[in-house]
Amino acid sequence: MTIRLGRRQFLMGSSALLAAGAAGFSPAFAQAAGLRQFFWGGQARADRTYAVNDLFAAAKGTSVDSSFLGWGDYWPKLATETAGGNAPDIVQMDYRYIVEYAKRNAIAPLDDYVGGALKLDGFDQDQLEGGKVDGALYGISLGANSVAQLVNLAAFEEAGIEPPNRDTTYDDIRAMGEAFNAANIRGGLKVIADGSGSEPMLDNWLRQKGLALYTADGKLGFGADEAIEWFTLWKGFRDDGICVSAEDQALDTNGPLETTMVVLGKSAMMPSNSNQLVAFQTLMTDPLTITNYPRIAPGVGGGHYRKPSMFFSVGGSSGNKELAAEYLSFFVNDLEAAKVLGVERGIPCVSSVREAIAPDLNDQDQIALNFVANLGDLLGPLPPPPPAAAGEIDASLLRVLSQEVAFGARSPEDAGQYFVTEAAAILERAA
After folding, report:
1. Residues in a beta bridge with 220
2. Confidence band, pLDDT 50/70/90 cuts, at residue 391
3. CATH H-level superfamily of 13-143+308-370
4. Rounded (5°) CA angle 170-247-424
């Protein structure tokens, strides 16, 4: 099934999932003859996944009925199917939502299958831990990745400016932006997209300050002063033409990758993830690379972490849980499957698999692998999974406030204070 890639905001999932918790589950829709699978992503990911499904069918004699949607459309659809007791056997799960889905029994614990249908020998321990909720294993990481800055190398070359590197600071970004403005290439290309509404970029900035987006007990990990400083930083970039204008940034509705600032030719950099380099490069002829997010000051690190890029989980209402666990085992261990998958979903979590595919990786895949493997002092500890309301705070608060400041509807001071007050209220309601 081919469905156009989309990344619209997650707005419906939690409410539909709440209904699922109240309604309970029924295995009535389980398919005994095969497996149903649902994931988010674009056509490139789908092609790789379907090829692996064919390998699994050939090896095990079991068909996999698979479909996909873009990020923003995926979560409401999954929540609706879960609420109706019709969740697929295999669902792609994110670190943001795994706690919520696990606590509502929307996905199944996998511990009983480990060592049997589910082989995890040589699996990276930090990636296993990332898939646990209250000590039980609910998700199998499909790859390690890290937040990253997508960089258009051709644009920097045209502007006569050295591209950013691991030591680049926010002050350096300002200097680069001024140089881009002076060069005036491609009709006024800006050096960077507006990152004020990027939750990962805010998280990284806070971590460098020794703070956190969320605490282990599900509270906000920073205060109004930091929120005001964040919005003020980006207002300064916007006012001085360092980042893209409010009107240009609004073109990126968190929808198709084609509407992002780098692909549209509005900026030379934008926040992304290490595993997305492959997908972005398929959309552009300009050579792309990735680097880390800017440092808040020279020598300050710790903002990045090796995150499970995504998981496969088994649906809580699945009637084929053991077979689904066998599929998960095949997906992360089979060497032929690994060669098909590459690092599009992140760096493989089994050491023998990484070693097997490394020699045959293309240039973009090699860049992603080397980036995640060599974060050095940029690397900090994996944070706890975000609270259940994090998706709402991201989509309906941070992104909205960033646009309101960008268009002059709020001041950074007003937006920063409102953000922490309203975020705390959302977290309290969710708890």
Report:
1. 214
2. confident
3. Periplasmic binding protein-like II (3.40.190.10)
4. 65
